[in-house]
Structure formats: C-alpha cells, structure tokens
Specification:
Blueprint lengths: L3 E4 H4 E4 L14 E5 L2 E6 L8 E5 L8 E3 L4 E2 L3 E6 L6 H8 L18 H5 L2 E4 L2 H40 L10 E4 H4 E5 L17 E4 L8 E5 L8 E5 L7 E4 L4 E2 L3 E6 L6 H10 L14 H4 L3 E4 L2 H41 L10
Parallel strand pairs: 3-7, 12-16
Antiparallel strand pairs: 1-9, 2-8, 3-4, 5-6, 5-8, 10-18, 11-17, 12-13, 14-15, 14-17
Helix pairs in contact: 4-8
C-alpha cells in the first residue's frame, strides 16, 4: 500500500473555539466541549461537520472525535477536515497515537500552537484503504459505545428505584433512623502514592490506584498490593469535590480522596453510594476547597429498616453486576483496539485484501 506524506496543515484547517456564554442554555441541545469534556449545551453550533478536537490549553494530551454539531470553548481547537484527502475518523485514530504532551509550549499551563500543529507530518493512504482500516476499528468502538449506553440506562434505573423507595417521603417513616456517615462507615483519607506504580495493568501491578477526578473515575495507575478489599465508596476531596464512585474490586486510595467502608450490619455499599450521589457535597476552606474526614463524618444520612435495606440491595445487585460486566468487556475491547491501532496505521497489518 502506497502512503503519501502530508502535514496536518494540508489535511485540516485548525480553528479556535469561542466563548460559550452567549449560546449556553438549559434549553440547548448542542454539546459544548472543553479540554475536560462536556461543559453544557448550546442553542447553536460552532461547527456541524465531523471534526477532530485538539486541546489548546490545559489538557492537551488527548484528541476527541465528534460527528455531530458542536461548540468548543477557546481552550479547545476544532478542525475543518479536507475530506478529499483524509476521512475525519481515520485522522482521529492517527492523531490519537501522538504524544501531544511532547509538543507542549506552555510554561505554567500546557499549551499547543497552531504553527506547531500544522507542521506535524502524517503518512496517509488512499481513501479506499482508509475505509478498510476503519472497517476493522469502528465495530470495536461501536460495541464499546453500546455497552456505555446500556450502562447509562441501567444506572438511571437504579437511581430511579432508589429515589422512589427512599427519597419520596415527606416525613421520616416509622422505623427509619437519622444517623451520620461516621456512624455507618469507617471513613479515611487517601494515603501516599505507592512506591511501585504502573500506568498500565501488568502481572506485577494488578490493583488500581485511585485519586480524585472524573476521567476514568480517578484512575491514577496500578500497583502491587491493595489497601481496600471490600465493597466501598470513594469521594473526591479536592478539585472536583464530591465525585462519588462505588468500588467493587480491591484497590488503593491515595491523596485527595476520601474512602468510606460501610458497616455492613447497618448499611450496604450500594445504598451508601446512591445516598451520597443524591445529596450536595461541599468542601471547606478559604483559598482551596477541600473535603475533610472530620467534617464529612458529621454528614447526615437516613437509614431504613434492615429488611428494606436488604431487599433493595438484592434488587439492584444484578443490575450493578451487569454494569461491571460491561465495563470489563469494554476494557478488553479497548485493549484489542489499542493493540491493533498502531499496526493498522503503520501498514504492518495490511488490509488491502479486505472485501467491503
């Protein structure tokens, strides 16, 4: 297969995002993207064709592909793609292999310049061959997206059940109790980073390490041992305060994270997780907000009778297990895709003979 060399400036026109204040609305339907992901919705689109989004400032190490009308803020570039030369999704896969952090030209905040990006060079095959490569990669991504949509629906069902059973009462029902998080859980702040840590899961480093953050539920890396083995809940304590996760596999929590291990004679981890998701969680502090264990222990929680707790937990258990099964499948699919991607893009795996 013959490849031709192009600069990014020959493949796309890089465009600046714009301030979203005039178009952002609760009634909007057009996604607004920043470097951290979805920021809200707009009433009109900045661009309505398939595009590769590139971080300009802040998070610059990952590109994003969109194939629907969108708006980007001024920290995020979007691209007008020359589709006579390259298919937008193919370019996205190609650019996802780049280490964009290595092109950082910022001093305090990571930054990319259009001049630098335009000089990047790519080997591009003809459009027919690009289609064949996409025929291998896209079904994997479609299955991942389908699993994500199924999980979103399952979690909505779980939260609706929780709200109906436990949050719809005007007064405290007979037999229910007002307690504190300190009463119903063992609460602790995350510790220091492990001495041995890996970016990827390996035979030696099998256990996830979590810190604060929303992306990948705060996954920091993997290590050789775990500190928490039982089903539990973590809450981000700095930065994005109050991001709640239910943990079901052994893990190690580190800085900027609060862990709650439920006292199972009183409460289930799933009930605790859903309760925390249903309430506002605020930090304290003047210069930088943070969630502290002593203050968080005082937070009130309503506890139903043991029979009600047990019945609800048994009802939602299979739904959560399906969510986790889908997440495991997605991790395996992503590993397959990521292993194939560089070999397909380089031509090491030749798909010329594929019959579309």
């Amino acid at each position: 297969m013959k490849y031709n060399l192009f600069t990014l400036g020959e493949l796309v026109t890089i465009k600046y995002g714009k301030n979203q204040k005039k178009v952002q609305s609760d009634d909007g339907t057009i996604p607004i993207y920043g470097t951290g992901g979805l920021m809200g919705y707009a009433t009109e689109a900045l661009h309505d064709k398939p595009s590769v989004l590139i971080g300009r400032k802040g998070t610059i190490n990952k590109v994003r592909f969109v194939d629907h009308p969108f708006w980007t803020v001024d920290t995020l570039f979007y691209t007008e793609v020359n589709e006579n030369t390259v298919i937008p999704k193919y370019l996205y896969y190609l650019m996802s292999l780049l280490d964009l952090d290595s092109y950082n030209e910022g001093t305090t905040i990571p930054s990319l310049r259009t001049e630098t990006l335009n000089r990047l060079e790519f080997d591009i095959p003809d459009l027919e061959y690009q289609e064949k490569v996409l025929s291998v990669l896209e079904p994997i991504d479609k299955k991942i997206r389908l699993n994500e949509e199924v999980n979103e629906n399952l979690l909505q069902q779980i939260e609706a059940l929780f709200k109906e059973r436990f949050l719809s009462h005007d007064a405290l029902p007979f037999g229910w109790k007002r307690m504190t998080l300190g009463d119903v859980s063992e609460m602790s702040a995350g510790g220091d980073k492990p001495k041995t840590i890996s970016d990827q899961k390996t035979d030696a480093c099998q256990y996830p390490v979590y810190s604060n953050g929303i992306s990948d539920e705060g996954l920091y890396g993997f290590t050789t041992d775990y500190k928490i083995s039982s089903e539990s809940v973590t809450v981000s304590a700095r930065g994005t305060i109050g991001f709640v996760c239910l943990r079901h596999i052994p893990y190690t929590p580190i800085v900027r994270l609060v862990t709650l291990v439920p006292r199972e004679s009183i409460i289930s981890a799933k009930y605790l997780y859903l309760w925390l998701k249903s309430i506002p969680i605020h930090g304290t502090g003047t210069t930088q907000q943070q969630l502290t264990v002593p203050d968080f222990r005082k937070t009130e929680i309503i506890i139903p009778p043991e029979a009600d707790m047990r019945e609800f937990t048994e009802t939602v258990n299979p739904l959560f297990h399906q969510v986790w099964s889908n997440q495991d499948e997605n991790a395996k699919l992503a590993n397959v895709r990521d292993a194939l991607l560089p070999r397909l893009m380089s031509g090491e795996l030749d798909v010329s003979d594929l019959d579309l």
